[in-house]
Amino acid sequence: MIQTITLTNFRNHRMCRVQTGGRRNVIITGPNGAGKTALLEAVSMLSGDRGMRGAPMTDIACFGGDGGFSVHACMDDDTEISVYYNSGDTNRRARIDGNAANLSELAARTRMVWLTPREDRLFVDSASDRRAFFDRLAASFDVAHAGRVGRLNKLMSERAFALKNGADSRWIDALDVQIAGTAVAVSAARIQYAGELNYFLSDCAVTVSGMVEQSLIDSPPAAAERQYAQYLGRTRELVGDKMVLDGPHKSDFGVFNQALGLPASLTSTGQQKTVLLNLILAHARLLHAKTHTHPLVLLDEAAAHLDADARRRMFDELAATDAQVWATGLDANVFADVADAVFVTCMNGEFNNILDPKGLE
Question: Which phi and psi (to 5°) does residue 99 adopt?
Fold first, then answer.
């Protein structure tokens, strides 16, 4: 869990520090534009990822600053983690206990999941959005998964370039072998994650569908890899300078609402929101069961729209997973009955901690 987090030149926060007091729930309230989501985004950077908004680093750096930013956190085990970006650098950098570290090392230390208004349309938007969402969740356990997904996309781009430029068939053969191996690894991780997540779900079920995923269900991994390599060898046409190719880059995730007997995409907006929250709860339980760590759950305007009973039930269930929850909302009184909470009011890029929620009116 995070004990203290310090932001420097991050979005509209010049220099701010939040102390959680070791509380399980960190409630951030304030008017629109005050910087509530920016605080959650800063926390999400500690995962080693690009953050919950996926924004360019230059957009995150505070306007009028030196073009860089930093996020520094002290954890409950006395570990210090920081992510920073300097103007002119091509990417972010990380430090653990003052020593330079790879960004990938942070994922094993800060297991987190976030839910933002962007995910409200997850079940009705494109398959690529669902793939990105579930691949990010799967990477919470298999740190190499994100790298394999990125490698698959890179290999696919190299293959399209080779076909477009009439490259030697032996080069394309070699690419196909690499693509097939990476594709099977990506698909296998997706199938495993969906199965493990379903163990902690009661009212809904997650499925993953695609050519390679189906091959893995029907055949051993070696056979699935061989079948996909053969498919690649037969499919080398370009249509308008683009490959017409099936594979894990076309796969899709589905969620079935078992209580209603319908796919989540055919249910109401409110029911879809409930399913999303159930997915986050199940993911937090899975994180706790597999890693025995305190997962970080970031909820941007996700809990404020629940009624009092549903909100209390959600926070109670998250507490059972030993998660530290960071949640934003406009009205602090909405969260007044949340136990073990520190309240943080955000105003004009500044934070004010209220360690005693009884002071709320």
Answer: -100, 140
CATH number of 121-291: 1.20.1050.90
What are the domain boundaries of the chain? Answer: 1-111+293-361, 121-291
Q: Which two tokens stand for residue 201?
A: 């779900």
pLDDT tens for residues 314-358? 888 888 888 899 999 888 888 888 888 999 888 765 666 644 433
pLDDT digits (tens, 9 = 90+) for 105-155: 888 788 888 998 888 889 999 999 999 999 999 988 888 898 899 999 999
Whether the model clears a pTM of 0.90, i.e. scores above it, the answer is: no
274: Cβ contacts below 8 Å, ≥ 6 apart: none
Residue 27's alpha-carbon distances to 63, 85, 170, 274, 351, in angstroms, are 26, 27, 58, 20, 12
Could you tell me which of 64, 62, 99 has the C-alpha nearest to residue 79?
99
- The set of residues, in sequence order, having a beta carbon less than 8 Å from that of 325 and lying 6+ positions away, is 24, 25, 26, 297, 298, 299, 315, 318
Q: Which CATH architecture has domain 1-111+293-361?
A: 3-Layer(aba) Sandwich (3.40)
Cβ neighbors of 48 (< 8 A, separation 6 or more) are 83, 94, 102, 103, 104, 105, 106, 107, 110
